[in-house]
């Protein structure tokens, strides 16, 4: 007879907490809750109550559970949770989720593409995609995801859960998890989240004596006071306040007839305290004895397979025919021992994980081992192909049978499969298990794989420490070749994380093992590592020798192709493309085209998209045309390569800035800036922050630029290769829009100094364009310097070429060659067509020289530039153009408008457009002379405007007026 309570007893506070969380999520405020307690304490009952309440509120509910079988399956609880929703409701069709389908395909089979090998997404990318999916599901009423038994889950799931709870505060998502207080990654996460106040943790204690009486009454459908006192006392003592144990012990009393219902209520027969089983194992043993022999055999076999089991595997182990198998399963379900697993139609689960443990423990050790041995043999000899679950199950059965060496080999194989698939956390778990079980002679190969799994999973120090502790092997032996390969792969991981010293040490260790003449393929891989080390500061290999490095990498690329090592070849061609930029972009593109061809031929999708991205970036820099870059983005999105998509979008944002497509640039930056920070993609995050700063600089918005650059510094931008762009493309250009050529020149000089001390293959810092123009205008550069800039690879880029054409025109005009100057201006107009801000700024910069030397159309240029910058709200340049027109004796158009730019409070106070031009500069607290220079007006006029502003705003002094201007945070429109 079953004895289960229809109500939850003793958990009113927890039910109230869950209700408050659901209400909060409906208002759009995300919550993360964890229920912590021993097995059987009532966690799952509370989860069920939460699910029921969420359903009532119209919320989508997703429910998944980790497996307690010991199998390591990455993301299993998450996949089950999504399947529980999509099986009934179908997969969502929102276009917003389309870019995330490839990343989520690991969890949602419907989004897998048979014609593409897919992209091995990082855990963080998958977590961000899951967060977007849950946000879409919860858009109308909120969304609830329930994850049970997290103490048994894989490390990848723990990482995803950590990411989600850290980022759901402003999203309509409730994450409710349950776990036992057992040491492990899940408990560490929960305690950490509690300390960081990103999650609420509720520990479930045992029920009190009164609550035990109430629960017993609920199970028996009787008032608590009618429970026989001996029964209550014994249940309170033996169950220790654990609801599940109480129900099992109560069921045993009912099944044996020691507790029965009479006309006068519930009564005991005999002495319940003497007849009750001594522990839960004996209780289940007695329940088994009362079942039919075939059902008992089926349940013991099922318990050997774990708390959840596949019907197919169970049939293989037991040998039952279909009809008998399902009849016995129905009997076990009716007895309340097992239930269908809602996550998969082919699976059943014991009603509680303790049930399976108790059933197995009821057997003698020799009987348990024999049953596990027979089960392993049945599965392995079935002739059916085994999936990953089946392979790990066989390993667990061998371990239960006492075959430690056989289990170690199988766990090691499973760990290496996880390593190859990119599931590094699960690989570590399996390989650590194998390492513990392996014989001494087998430990070293397992440790090598474990070192790689740790390093690739983010624990490079742990991987290096394990590699350092490996026992020595004879040089140039088979074991040495395998060990050398391990050191090469560790060196590559260190290179990718810019751990220069560690990468060099691992490369040397590989060489020591492989000898002076390593096999060609490994020699090529080492050459690629050395090539990257040559680019990194502090590599300790003497002065840079680009030509020697390029020759070595070229030889590595050819060798890798000959040795059928396409990944190493792609690594080499990618590095070669960067090195060949010093020869010109045609040479760099040739290397990338070879990389593209190889990756396509060998079905390496990620390397193919890498090649497309770099070819698109080069095309954009050479011509200003982003069409090929857009095609690369489409390929990255289709593949699900979110990191590459962010990289391409950063480049597209900067392209939009240079082309003055402000809204497009801002939309891209807003889309990815926070997301890139969340996922730890520092490279993309820094570039997006710099794009935002450059956007502000190119609009003449100094304060916005400074704020963005402060964020850039906080993100480590000053230690990145983007420093020259910050100095030249951003700050120097911004200084020119403030009519401060001295500061612009200083910034450009600083960029050049940085590039002299660091290897740099990025050519938009001004070294090959804007700086030569300013030096020519200042009379500091001659034609030889200009020719040198033109002949450099950077001089061929469209952004730089426009400034070099103007510099050449100035030199031609100064030399008395107006026709030559006109020809160069025509070339400038063609090159500058995609870049309207740079185009008009260039015309303003050279107009004075053209007027002085009598060439070109300086008055027309100034009028065009003045109109453009006035309309763009860049008043310093507009004012300078008006002043230059006056000096040239030309008429100046007076803009009597501009009232719409003035905020309403200032406009109602009578502030004029001319006064407002002064007002917007005041947050920087400039002096009158500085304001006069920037607006090209006299200091006396500035004084008049300042006095008028003090009067109209009611501020007591200049400091108060500057503070008021800063508070308004007014920027030019």
Rough shape? globular
Please give the oligomerization state of what you see: single chain
Major sheet characteristics: 5 strands, parallel
Number of strands: 10
Distance between the termini: 78 Å
Beta-strand portion reads under 5%
Strand order of the largest sheet: 2-3-4-1-5
Spans with pLDDT under 50 lasting ≥5 residues? 272-278
> How much helix is in the residues?
55-70%
Radius of gyration in whole Å, from Cα?
36 Å
Mean pLDDT: 87
User: Structural class from helices and strands?
Assistant: mainly alpha
Figure out the total of helices: 48
Could you characterize what this model shows?
- It contains 48 helices and ten strands.
- The model is unreliable at 272-278 (pLDDT under 50).
- Helix 13 (293-305) crosses helix 16 (353-361) and helix 25 runs antiparallel to helix 26.
- A five-stranded parallel beta sheet has the order 2-3-4-1-5, with helices on both faces. A three-stranded antiparallel beta sheet has the order 8-10-9.
- The protein is mainly α and 973 residues long.
Layout of strands and helices, then pairs:
Layout: H1 12-26, E1 31-36, H2 43-56, E2 61-65, H3 76-89, H4 101-104, H5 123-137, E3 143-148, H6 155-166, E4 173-179, H7 185-195, E5 200-203, H8 209-220, H9 229-239, H10 243-255, E6 259-262, E7 265-268, H11 272-275, H12 280-289, H13 293-305, E8 308-310, H14 311-318, H15 322-334, E9 338-340, E10 347-350, H16 353-361, H17 365-380, H18 388-400, H19 404-421, H20 424-437, H21 443-456, H22 460-468, H23 478-496, H24 500-514, H25 520-535, H26 546-562, H27 566-579, H28 585-601, H29 605-623, H30 627-639, H31 642-658, H32 662-678, H33 682-698, H34 702-714, H35 723-737, H36 741-757, H37 770-777, H38 783-791, H39 798-814, H40 818-831, H41 836-853, H42 858-872, H43 875-887, H44 904-908, H45 913-919, H46 928-935, H47 939-953, H48 958-968
Parallel strand pairs: 1-4, 1-5, 2-3, 3-4
Antiparallel strand pairs: 6-7, 8-10, 9-10
Helix pairs in contact: 1-2, 5-6, 6-7, 8-10, 9-10, 10-12, 12-16, 13-15, 13-16, 14-17, 17-18, 18-19, 19-20, 19-21, 20-21, 21-22, 21-23, 22-23, 23-24, 23-25, 24-25, 25-26, 25-27, 26-27, 27-28, 28-29, 29-30, 29-31, 30-31, 31-32, 31-33, 32-33, 33-34, 33-35, 35-36, 36-37, 37-39, 38-39, 39-40, 39-41, ...
